[in-house]
Design brief:
Elements: E1 2-7, H1 10-19, E2 21-28, E3 31-38, E4 41-47, H2 52-65, E5 70-79, E6 89-97, E7 119-120, H3 123-135, E8 140-147, H4 155-164, E9 168-172, H5 175-185, E10 189-197, H6 203-228
Helix pairs in contact: 1-6, 2-5, 3-6
């Protein structure tokens, strides 16, 4: 099995990159793609860059060049579901865009034409991630993860997202673009992220302070998944 892993920032992929052996590196547009082995498994690790377009470019390059059997999106997220705290793990059951609106034509909020209203994560990958989170003693929540090209820091933006997507668990800037590309290529995917902030008025300061913690926790989760896939 070949495992594809996508993280937006260097901080979100560096731990896994440090574990990679037999490593080769190529650059495609804004994406950096590392091919090698982690824990004896064939892994392709991608630093995509931030935002939906960068994530889509990187994931398309990953799928066309490396042809992984599964894709895991790792990194940090803003936790907006009640009870979520910094350091908790969120695992996608589905993803949606919070900044897409073509409802005037009868589509659901967040739905693009010719696409499903949400992109469903692979059930086996979701179950594996949930099992590992419990084994490692992390607080974990599975659910809807919403993506958009904005860093959410409370205010009207957060209230709008909660109104449009009452079941939203976490927000970030790449996962749904990755999910859409995987859906188009019929490749199973899951999002496994650690909470770095609460998406509120203190989100920017919390993110900067707790990004290293979130990156470490999500990387440890993904490493355990690699070992068990």
């Amino acid at each position: 099995m070949k495992i594809g892993i996508v993280g937006a920032m260097a901080q979100e992929v560096d731990i896994l990159l440090g574990l990679m052996t037999e490593k080769t590196e190529i650059k495609v547009a804004s994406a950096v793609i590392f091919d090698g082995k982690i824990a004896g498994k064939s892994v392709v690790l991608v630093q995509s860059g931030i935002g939906k377009v960068a994530a889509a470019i990187a994931t398309t390059a990953l799928l066309q060049l490396a042809k992984p059997d599964v894709v895991i999106n790792t990194g940090s997220a803003g936790g907006v579901a009640q009870g979520l705290k910094v350091g908790d793990i969120v695992i996608s059951t589905e993803t949606a865009y919070h900044d897409v609106d073509v409802t005037v034509f009868g589509y659901a909020k967040g739905q693009l034409p010719a696409c499903p209203a949400v992109f469903l994560s692979d059930q086996k990958l979701t179950a594996l991630a949930g099992k590992i989170a419990q084994q490692q003693g992390y607080r974990v929540k599975q659910g809807l993860i919403c993506s958009g090209d904005s860093f959410i820091a409370g205010g009207e933006s957060l209230q709008r997202i909660k109104a449009d997507f009452p079941q939203v668990t976490a927000v970030e800037m790449e996962a749904t673009a990755i999910a859409q590309v995987c859906h188009s290529f019929a490749v199973p995917f899951v999002v496994v992220r650690a909470i770095s902030d609460a998406g509120d008025g203190q989100a920017n300061m919390s993110f900067e302070e707790f990004l290293p913690l979130a990156a470490n926790m999500s990387s440890q989760m993904v490493l355990a998944m690699i070992q068990q896939l």
